[in-house]
Amino acid sequence: xxxxxxxxxxxxxxxxxxxxxxxxxxxxxxxxxxxxxxxxxxxxxxxxxxxxxxxxxxxxxxxxxxxxxxxxxxxxxxxxxxxxxxxxxxxxxxxxxxxxxxxxxxxxxxxxxxxxxxxxxxxxxxxxxxxxxxxxxxxxxxxxxxxxxxxxxx
Length: 154
Hints:
The chain is an alpha/beta fold. 48% of the residues lie in helices and 21% in strands.
């Protein structure tokens, strides 16, 4: 039985679904939860300094990440679960690699995450963190697609 569930989140409906499923699983099995959010700060760390205040933008990105984690804690509380949280920073690294490294350090035995379920063309253009995690990790991964009503909103 899985005892350490690692749940990467963003502010999407599919991430909420992953939280709900992880909380249900944790309640039934007594598993521990770690909820993480990755902020990519590299995109605002260089160039255009004469037009943008990169430090202020990075601060705002971190604050938005804290809000995502706060919302995740509230979702879990609604479902009778608690967790530890972490905000991870990426400086140009692939987000999937950042997540995998942290999940290994935490000794996760299951990664639970949402996926937007884009088609092949959109995944090729935009990439997929969920697909990257699934392809590169040795840790089992549970992917949850959004409900049909969620996908229309995404």
